[in-house]
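TASK: fixed-backbone design
INPUT:
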């Protein structure tokens, strides 16, 4: 909190806080249930937008509309009064004029002016929280919105006073890095921070609930719960669902429930890995080697450079043209669910970051590629 407000000697959060955490590990719950209320309690106007709330709509539009709704909430009474008086425009804090007929619409009012107007109308600092911010990079309007937000930050914040706080989260650190990692990135120089997963405090809370409702299970083995939670990938939704199942009177379990919970975690992990293996083996050979290269290279992936084309040829035993690679990438993007993500600048990445962890684990274990014939790939139509 202090860092966001520019009151901490260390860190750069007042220039933008970038948080990365895997999907379903409680990131959005933290942003909406913990961070946003804490900011509001500290006298900050909070605007929250989830860019995955509707992936069919342009992320730039979603950002603009979230800011517009917050602005309209503050100016609604002023606007109605102005209209009754026959005025066409109202002034915010005696400065910026806003067309009362366009309040709630960003067309004609850029994001910088809209955020400045919101801060002046609210009479307090503004915090814009963008969940799944990496999705903004998938459209030109989204990229433009990010650049505008950087400009708004630079114009609205002054030494010793932060009027605009930017918090951006992502479920894939590699994708989020594209907002900060090179000189052309809108927030070049900022750092990505890993959002810590739920820890022993969460496990203690769950164990306490079980002990309160089931005295016959006192004491609950907290270490066993922690191990199961880790095996579930620190995903509370899956963990709690499994807890409910093994504690149900209909489960058929007798005695201690912890071993059954640990087994459920191992089963879930095996199921996740089996699904990824099935997805991979269901691809055409050219698609497989493209995905293999992407998993191996991460943010360094370049689909058509000489090294990549050599890699494809070595694995397939035949050359792959740029056109064939393009066709394979597009096929990977069009799958349901998509296996590959593409930015507006033509950068590619694996859609689900969990595949990177699966790939790394198999490679470390010497079981990559996941093919009974150890990577012997046959020609395809690509």
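OUTPUT:
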């Amino acid at each position: 909190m202090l860092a966001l407000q520019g009151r901490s000697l260390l860190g750069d959060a007042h220039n933008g806080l970038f948080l990365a955490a895997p999907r379903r590990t409680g990131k959005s719950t933290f942003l909406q249930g913990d961070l946003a209320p804490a900011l509001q309690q500290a006298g900050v106007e909070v605007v929250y937008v989830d860019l995955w709330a509707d992936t069919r709509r342009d992320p730039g539009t979603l950002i603009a509309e979230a800011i517009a709704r917050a602005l309209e909430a503050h100016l609604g009474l002023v606007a109605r009064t102005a209209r009754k008086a026959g005025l066409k425009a109202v002034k915010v804090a005696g400065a910026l004029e806003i067309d009362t007929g366009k309040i709630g619409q960003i067309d004609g009012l850029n994001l910088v002016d809209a955020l400045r107007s919101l801060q002046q109308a609210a009479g307090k600092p503004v915090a814009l929280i963008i969940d799944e911010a990496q999705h903004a990079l998938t459209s030109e309007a989204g990229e433009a919105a990010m650049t505008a937000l950087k400009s708004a930050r630079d114009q609205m914040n002054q030494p010793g006073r932060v009027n605009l706080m930017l918090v951006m989260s992502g479920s894939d650190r590699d994708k989020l890095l594209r907002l900060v990692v090179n000189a052309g990135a809108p927030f070049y120089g900022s750092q990505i921070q890993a959002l810590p997963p739920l820890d022993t405090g969460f496990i203690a809370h769950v164990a306490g609930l079980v002990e309160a409702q089931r005295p016959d299970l006192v004491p609950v083995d907290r270490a066993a719960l922690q191990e199961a939670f880790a095996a579930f990938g620190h995903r509370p939704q899956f963990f709690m669902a499994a807890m409910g199942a093994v504690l149900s009177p209909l489960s058929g379990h007798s005695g201690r429930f912890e071993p059954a919970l640990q087994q459920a975690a191992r089963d879930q992990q095996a199921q996740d890995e089996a699904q990824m293996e099935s997805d991979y083996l269901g691809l055409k050979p050219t698609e497989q080697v493209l995905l293999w290269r992407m998993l191996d290279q991460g943010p360094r992936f370049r689909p058509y450079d000489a090294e990549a084309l050599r890699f494809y040829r070595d694995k397939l035993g035949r050359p792959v043209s740029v056109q064939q690679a393009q066709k394979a990438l597009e096929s990977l993007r069009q799958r349901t669910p998509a296996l590959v993500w593409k930015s507006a600048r033509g950068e590619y990445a694996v859609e689900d970051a969990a595949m990177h962890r699966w790939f790394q684990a198999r490679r470390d274990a010497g079981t990559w590629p996941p093919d009974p014939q150890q990577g012997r790939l046959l020609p395809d139509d690509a």
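COMMENT: The chain has a mean pLDDT of 86.
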